[in-house]
């Protein structure tokens, strides 16, 4: 998996500013990533990487790093 | 009628190897949908039914074994649907069981069994289906409730609770999913001639028929027609509704 691709999905879906501290980016820690945006983000990640996440994954995707780990679990190479 | 055509749409009908589910699967396939036939555990029966649909209606059809009482099987089912079809446009939450008991004689096991299949199953299916539907701009979900869920009946406190919960699920999900183009409606059959209702004791069955304004039981095809309507574009502006198909039944 190219991390840049995941960053692009996050940036475009959440409408993030140009400069993002990816290591600190977490659910509900920025105004752009609220519960409504979260479901949109899940859908965009699934579409971009051709996977279907479990409900546990959706609930566990609490940060950018967690999203990367979840994709790795689904066989999308990190 | 063009508003009834479902060409190119993928539909999952739970519990669709017989009864109302099978009639619904046939109705959707007859109008062009690719139908995924579902059986709780009998994969061969589902495959045979899928083959019947393809032969009769010249549409693709698929088969899926999945127990509505098991959330993990439901999750796996949607992974498979995503892998095979990449989309889902219609979900018919039909799978259900009927078990009656008078208040005071309701066992924990009965409560667990009936709610797992009739309430938790539809909820888990709806949640997973909605995620696939919103990717492609929307879809239609039709939940099978019952006149028992809307009006209640003696001996059916558990079944009635389970089916009433489906009404609540339908109305809440309709509100939440409307912005995503996903419509959620329910059909509430009255007394319908299926294997499930043939188990009702004869005397009680006669009493129930006597309470039907039209004086006769309904057919699975008549329920399937209501589902077909709600699943398609003729119902494009209808969501959060419960449509009775009961011949004017009083209960």
Outline:
With 78 residues, chain A is mainly alpha-helical.
What does this protein look like?
The complex is a heterodimer of chains A (78) and B (251). Chain A has helices spanning 3-14, 35-49, 55-60, 64-73. Chain A has 4 helices and no strands. Chain A starts with a helix and ends in a 5-residue tail after the last helix. With 251 residues, chain B is α/β, with parallel strands linked by helices. Chain B is built from 8 helices and 7 strands; from the N terminus they run βαβαβαβαβααβααβ. In chain B, strands 3-2-1-4-5-6-7 form a 7-stranded parallel β-sheet, sandwiched between helices. In chain B, strand 1, helix 1 and strand 2 form a beta-alpha-beta unit. Chain B is globular, with a radius of gyration of 17 Å. At the A-B interface, helix 2 of A face helix 3 and helix 4 of B.
Spatial arrangement of strands, main beta sheet of chain B? 3-2-1-4-5-6-7
Name of the CATH class of chain B: Alpha Beta
* SS-based class of chain B: alpha/beta
Sheet having the most strands of chain A: none
Order of helices and strands of chain B: EHEHEHEHEHHEHHE
- Biggest sheet layout of chain B: 7 strands, parallel
Give the overall form of chain A: globular
Strand content of chain B: 5-15%
Protein name (chain A): Acyl carrier protein
Organism (chain A): Virgisporangium aliadipatigenens
Pfam families (chain B): adh_short_C2
Family (chain B): Belongs to the short-chain dehydrogenases/reductases (SDR) family.
């Amino acid at each position: 998996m190219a991390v840049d691709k995941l960053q692009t999905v996050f940036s475009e879906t959440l409408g993030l500013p140009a400069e993002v501290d990816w290591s600190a980016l977490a659910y509900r820690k920025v105004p752009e990533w609220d519960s409504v945006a979260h479901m949109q983000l899940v859908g965009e990640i699934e579409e971009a990487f051709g996977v279907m996440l479990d409900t546990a994954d959706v609930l566990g995707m609490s940060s950018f790093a967690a999203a990367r780990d979840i994709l790795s679990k689904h066989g999308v190479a990190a | 009628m063009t508003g009834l055509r479902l060409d190119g749409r993928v539909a999952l009908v739970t519990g669709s190897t017989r009864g109302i589910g099978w009639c619904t699967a046939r109705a959707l396939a007859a109008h062009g949908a690719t139908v995924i036939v579902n059986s709780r555990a009998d994969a061969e029966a589902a495959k045979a039914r899928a083959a019947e649909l393809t032969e009769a209606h010249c549409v693709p059809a698929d088969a899926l074994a999945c127990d509505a009482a098991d959330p993990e099987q439901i999750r796996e089912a949607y992974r498979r649907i995503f892998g095979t079809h990449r989309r889902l446009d219609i979900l018919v939450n039909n799978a259900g069981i009927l078990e009656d008991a008078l208040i005071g004689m309701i066992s924990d096991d009965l409560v667990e069994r009936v709610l797992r299949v009739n309430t938790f199953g539809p909820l888990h299916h709806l949640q997973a289906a909605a995620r696939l539907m919103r990717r492609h701009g929307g879809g239609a979900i039709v939940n099978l409730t019952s006149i028992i869920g809307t009006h209640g009946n003696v001996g059916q406190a558990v079944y009635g609770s389970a089916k009433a919960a489906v009404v609540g699920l339908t109305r809440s999900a309709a509100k939440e999913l409307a912005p995503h183009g996903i419509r959620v409606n329910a059909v509430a059959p009255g007394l319908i001639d299926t294997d499930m209702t043939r188990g009702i004791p004869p005397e009680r069955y006669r009493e129930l028929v006597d309470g039907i304004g039209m004086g006769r039981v309904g057919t699975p095809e008549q329920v399937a027609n209501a589902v077909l309507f709600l699943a398609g574009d003729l119902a494009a502006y209808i969501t959060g509704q419960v449509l009775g198909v009961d011949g004017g039944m009083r209960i």
